[in-house]
Each structure stands twice: as C-alpha cells, then as structure tokens.
Amino acid sequence: MLVLPLLPTERVVLEEGDVAPRDIRAPRRFAYESALLRASEQQRAAAGVTPVYTLPDPALARQQLDRARQVLDYLGSVRADTLASFAQQRGWILAVPELADLPPETLDSLLALPDQGWDRVQLETLAVIDQAMRRAIREGYLENARDGVPALVSLDLSDEETAVAIALARHFLVPNSFLDPAATARAQARAREDVSSVLRTFEASQVIVREGARVEALDIEVLDQLGLRQSQVRWDDVAGGGLLAVLATVLLCLYLVRFEPDLIWSGQQFLLLVLLTSLSVLGTGLMVPGGVVLRYLAPTPALALLASATLGPHAGVATAVFLGGVAGVIADNSLEMTTYAALGGLVAALTLRRVERISALFRAGAFVSLAHVVIVVIFRLPQAAAEPGDLLVTALTGIVNGGLSASLALGVLFLVGPLFDITTTMRLIELSRPDHPLLQRLLREAPATYHHSLMVANLAEQAAERIGADALLTRVGAYYHDVGKISRPYFFTENQVEGMNPHNRLDPHTSAAVIIDHVKDGLELARRYRLPRRVRAFIPEHHGTNW
User: Same domain, yes or no, for 418 and 448?
Assistant: First the structure.
C-alpha cells in the first residue's frame, strides 16, 4: 500500500481542465457507449423519482390510542376530585406532557363540562384519533394533520364539547408514515436501469479537442476509448520509489519509537496509523498528478489533523513530514509540493492541540489555509507577472484545502472512534447527550444517582479545566462512573426512601459485597453499551484500582 502510490509513471499528456496544445483528431471512424453521458442521464432520472414513504403504522395508532385512554381516565379522575381547588385541577392537567400547552380557555371548558358532555368528549376524542391515525401522517406534515382534526369531529357535539375534543385529539397525533430509504433507492435504481445506452460516433479525422480548448471529462473519455492516453511504467523509477518508501517508513517508525513508544506497541493504534497513512498516500498519489488544481487541493493536512486528534501531536508531526516527502516524490521531486504538503501538515498538527470542540479542527484548518497561501506566494510570486491568474487560482485552492482537510478529518473522526476504541471529541459529545440509552436507564432506575453524577461531573470538569486536563473526557466519565448502581439502586443511600434501608436486613459481608459489586456491574454495563476504554476507566478508578 505504501509503495504503490510512489511508483512514478509517465503520465498522460492531457488531463481534465488542461488546455489542448493542438488539434486532436479521431484516427478512424469510431463509435462507443458513453458511460459519462449515461451516468448523467441516470442521475437525472434518479433525481426525478418521487420519494417512497411507508404505510401508516398501526402499532403507532394503537400506542397513541392507549395513551389517550390513560390520559382521559386521568382527566376524569381530576374532574371527579371535588376536594381539589380549580387551580390544583388545572395544575394537575398541565402536568401531563401531552397537555402542557393546553390553552386556558380549553382547560376551563374541560373542567366545566357536565358528566354527560365529558363522556361524549371522551368517545369522540378516541374516535377522531383512530380516524386520523389511520391516515398517513408524514414527517414534517404533522401540523397539516392536526389542522384537519376539526373536519373529523361529529356535528352532534356542542361548541364547547367540540373545542375540547379537537384540542385533546390534536395532542395525540404523531407521524406514522416515514421515508423508506430502501424503497426509494430501489425506485431510483429502477429508474437508472431504464436509461438506455448513449452512443457517441466520431468520423475519421473528426476533431475531438481543438487547439486552445479546455479539456473536459467527455474529451478524456473519448481519448481513453481511442487509446490516445497511454501510460508507460519505468521500472528503474519503480525500484527507486520502493526504496524511498522503505526508508521513509523506517524513519517514521524510529521517530515514533523515540517520542510515542506506546503507539508503536499498541496494536489498534498502530493499525489505525498505518491505515490512515496508507489511505492518505493513495489519495495523494491519485490527486497530485491530476493537474494544478487537484494537486493543491489534495487534503494532505487531513492526515496530520487525524493523527494529532487520535494518536497525539508527535504522530501528527511525523505523518506530516512523511506525507510531505511522498507528495514531493509523486510530483516529480517537486520542492514546492514537498514544502506545501509538509508545512501544511505541520501547521495542522501544531495548532490543533486538544479537540474538545469541533471548532478546533476548523481553527487549525484556517491556519493551514494561511500557511498554504504563504507557501504559494513564495514559490509562485516570481512567475506572477507572466501568469497572474495562476497565482490567484493556486492561492484560492490552498485556502479551500484548509477547509476541505478539516471537514475530511471531522468526518473520519466519527468513524475511527467506535472502530478503533479511540475516544474522540465527537464520540464524547455523543455520550454526553442525555438521551443516551445508558444515561436514560440511570435516570429512570436510579434517579438520585443520576443527579449525583451530574453534580460530580460539574465539579470534576471545573477541576480538570484548572489543572489543564481533558475537561470533556472528565465530564463524560463522571456521568458514567456510577452506572453500576442501576443493578441494585436502593442499596445506595441516595436512592433510598427515608426509613427503608435494605442493608439493615443483611449481614456485613453481604452488605459490603453489594456495595463493592457496583463497580463490576458498572464495567459490565459499560461493555454492553460499548463505552470507550477511557470512559470505562472512570468506573473502577473512582474507587481506586484495587477493588
């Protein structure tokens, strides 16, 4: 993988975007099926396919009807409570999540209805929900469905009863028809398959590309079909490129052994480094020979950003220098390309620091863009008088490269975290969300422990900021440090009801074992929910490591 992209070859004369130095004509009469034109027609056909949605989900309808019955029963009990004040009744009703925004006038009408009227409202509300949920309610069209509720209410109800039934029914409607990506993709695939082949024909001596014209992708396709773009392997350069790749790899490993020895002996981290470097070299080998714009658009700093964010700054520096040398060799031993790629990567690695926020990547990308502009000006300013447009285009490409590298690094970070058990910022942000399944379990099954964990997280985060530690990792680790209490929540004082302590019925050894076991239980839950290794470490370490 490391050697193949380094193999210098005699590149084709023309690339897309180049200017043709002379007229290029077809040597003979020639016809072929154009893959580019057919792909364009297929794309147009697929774009015209109407999205496919699922049928209304009856399970959702039953779920909402059951919930509506529960709420209506509750409302009936509130209405029947003659000892409660009107304000208390209103407060109890507004405490129901579905009815939290019920208008005051509707509340008044609901409580003032006679029992017979309330019975009619209950029956009509359930009937309206049943009718509405049998129809397709697509995501994004919920308000349309709610606006249609008045048309479903029976005319036998009084105005007050109708208003209450409408208000109640509206709150229990939910989307029941969702975009079906698989069915839509199948429909688009059928639309693509229905596109017939597109035949292009050239007569002998017909001009394919005129002198001075900009070469387009279709022109490249014709030249390839006619065999007018041939590459030739030079085996002496192959051997030289292979030896250079071996030397560069050895130097990279020696640097990491000196400054990041743990990385070399960590199987997962070293595999990640090899994979990222290999893919970066491959991408550089494909883009650098592809013309001036592609050469300066190659996101080589993305490797340094990724290595720094996941493996440490020394890894970022090493890979930046390594990839800079590779880029220079691929660009026919270009000092300009070596400097451009190496310094861009070094700036990325040295300005990134910790990735506690996504903005840190783009801040580093901005510094990369600035470094690229400086390098382009240094190397191309002497020729700017003859080709002023070339300097501007190259500088703009270097600016775009910084943003592209940061965006690419951000996207890859989302993938490598779970795959290689690396605690990336994006993974920590995801784990810090209160809707994470394990945090939801902690909230429901051990609410006091959940509150305690939040308080610990706030305190620990402030302490981490003071001493320069990873504040985000500290906060997230604190969220999960006591998840083991989910197994037996009421054996821990914060979850106990006053006067009810289950430890009073246990002997001391069993009682202590229950307390100690919350660490083991927490580790088991952490593995089940696939928490990263660095977050799992908070579970045993918050009681020491001799548990």
Answer: no
- In the prediction, which pLDDT does 384 show? 59
| Residues 432 and 389 grouped into a single domain | no
pLDDT at 358 over 80: no
Using one digit for the tens of pLDDT, what is the confidence trace for 152-184?
A: 998 888 888 899 999 899 989 999 989 889 999
Mean pLDDT of all residues in 407-417: 81
Q: What angle do CA 90, 96, 97 make, to 5 degrees?
A: 130
Q: Are residues 137 and 243 in the same domain?
A: no
In a domain, 484, yes or no: yes
Same domain, 244 and 141: no
Same domain, 283 and 407: yes
What is the spatial distance between Cα 442 and Cα 228, in angstroms, rounded to a whole number?
67
| Cβ-proximal residues to 278 (8 Å cutoff; 6+ apart), any chain | 1, 2
When divided into structural domains, the chain yields a total of 4
The predicted pLDDT at position 73 comes to 92
Last residue of a domain, one of 170, 202, 219: 170
With bands split at pLDDT 50, 70 and 90, how would you rate the model's confidence at 6? very low
- Round the average pLDDT of the chain to a whole number and report it: 81
Calculate what percentage of the chain has a pLDDT beyond 70: 87
6 and 120 share one domain: no
Q: Measure the CA–CA gap between 309 and 355, rounded to whole angstroms.
A: 6
Question: Which of 380, 296, 370, 308 minimizes the C-alpha distance to 340?
Answer: 296
In a domain? residue 39? no
- Coil vs helix vs strand at 337: helix
pLDDT digits (tens, 9 = 90+) for 439-462: 888 888 888 888 888 898 899 889
> Do 384 and 239 share a domain, yes or no?
yes
98 has a pLDDT exceeding 60:
yes
Per-residue exposure over 32-59, b if at least 16 CB sit within 10 Å of its own CB, e if not:
bebeebbeebbeebbeebeeeeeebbee
Rounded Cα distance between 322 and 251, Å, is: 9
Q: Comparing C-alpha atoms, which of 346, 369, 349 is closest to residue 309?
A: 349
Q: Does a structural domain hold residue 50?
A: no
239 and 218 in a common domain:
no
Asked whether residue 91 is domain-assigned, the answer is yes
- Under a CB-based contact definition with an 8 Å cutoff, are residues 412 and 302 in contact? yes
Using DSSP's 3-state secondary structure scheme, residue 196 falls into coil
Are 325 and 339 within 8 A, CB to CB? Answer: no
Q: Which of 405, 422, 439 represents a domain boundary (last residue)?
A: 422
Instruction: Tell how many helices (H) and how many strands (E) occur in the chain.
Output: 25, 6
Which pLDDT does position 318 carry in this prediction? 84
Residues 464, 472: Cα–Cα separation, whole Å: 9
- Greatest mean pLDDT range, 48-62, 269-283, 296-310, 373-387: 48-62
SS (H, E, C) 86-108: HHHHHHHHHCCHHHCCCCHHHHH
Give residue 490's domain range.
Answer: 427-541
Query: Quick one: pLDDT at residue 126?
Result: 92
CB count, 10 Å around CB of 268? 12
CATH at residue 292: 1.10.1760
